[in-house]
Amino acid sequence: MKKLTKAIAAISAAAVLAIPANMSAFAYNVSTSNFTNPMVNKSKGGARGYSWDTYYQADLPVLWKKLLNANGKYTYYATTDTNGNEYGSTHMFAILHRGVADSANIQNAKKYIDNITIKSKKGFYYAPCVEYHNYSTADEPYDPDDPDDQPMFEYYDYGIRMMDGPYLQDIINKFTISSLSDLNYEYIKAHGEFTGALYLKNYYLAGLKLTSSDPYTRFDEPVLERNPDGIGFRTKVTFHVKKPVFDETIVFNNPSGYTGVEVLKNIKVSCNGSDTDKNCIQGYNSISVVNGVTLKVPNADYKNWNKLYQGLITCPTLTTEIKGEVKKRFLNSNFQTTRRVGDILYIYEGKNDTIGHPQWKNGTGSQKFEAFFRCGGRDELGHCAWIGEQLNSVTQVRFYSGSTPTSYGTQYYMCDPGYLKNRLAVG
Known about the structure:
Blueprint: H1 2-16, E1 28-30, E2 61-63, H2 65-71, E3 74-77, E4 92-96, H3 110-113, E5 116-119, E6 125-132, E7 158-163, H4 165-172, E8 176-177, H5 185-191, E9 193-201, E10 203-205, E11 209-211, E12 217-219, E13 223-226, E14 233-242, E15 249-251, E16 258-263, E17 268-270, E18 293-298, E19 303-305, E20 311-312, E21 321-322, H6 324-331, E22 336-341, E23 344-350, H7 358-362, H8 365-382, H9 385-391, E24 396-403, E25 410-415, H10 417-426
């Protein structure tokens, strides 16, 4: 099969020899001395601008390591034809010399490719897209003793195409992903994080970066590596999903069930030419191979159940989940809480909740109740709909002081619900 491929290539090469004598049979080298910006694609054929097979390589500029080192991080104009007409989206920009990019050492190519940005004279930016084709057959096994079975090193296998719009999206849609079978909360909790990879076979976008809209997914710098079968290369982007972190909350009911957390969410691609005023890159940059994965986080992992109380007395009803400053005050015993057991309603005053009345500290049970009632207690109870509902069905109300998150404190007063309802109504 390889010999058949080489025979076809030989026929194409013979056709190239029919071009004018002042044109090279193979891709022409661009050096520091003959470099122009823009560079020129000398093709006259019907597929000019698009094709870079063994026939059309004769017309394309080839970028050498010395030139790329000299230019450094550089913005190139889009390649033109011999009349100065600019090529555009999906057209070839240039070929990469084997010293810059070959499959055996493809990891070294990235530093050169990432320095390339391509711009139209009209100000539009293209995504510089490296693609691989096995034109030289150098990646295939060959018999070193068979002169007809040698690689055709005069041809190059790596070229850069100018991409944007839906054509760029077609390339990005070729991303594949490693197995996600272990991407679940239990695995991440046990191992610290989940690690996987996205792959793009035989393509790379200069300056490639991946981002996700969720805070738990991060991406490593892309690497270029040889394809597992030895033919060509692939882009590999390793990603890590860390354990979701929540503000620990205190709840007053059983924290059963799960909270869904989406990871690998809205993955976007950026590359050289992104984030510029004029480009058709950002609108065509979504990775579709995965569109979010939902982790099921057990509520009990971050919601601490306080089993003493049913909730904080608040307006318009009980608060049954607290965090932040409210949680801080609760843990400091600065609260009004409640619970119902059978036909009895309990009202608890935290030991550090300040009631500015002398009888709160020194009074008898009824005096202490009056101090509580006049110094905010009536408003607290009267504006909590849950308290009002319970007063319609309980037979007794008991009041406690000195309460903490772990202790009910001491009972100081009790009354029937009708009395308390009347006092809430008339003061």
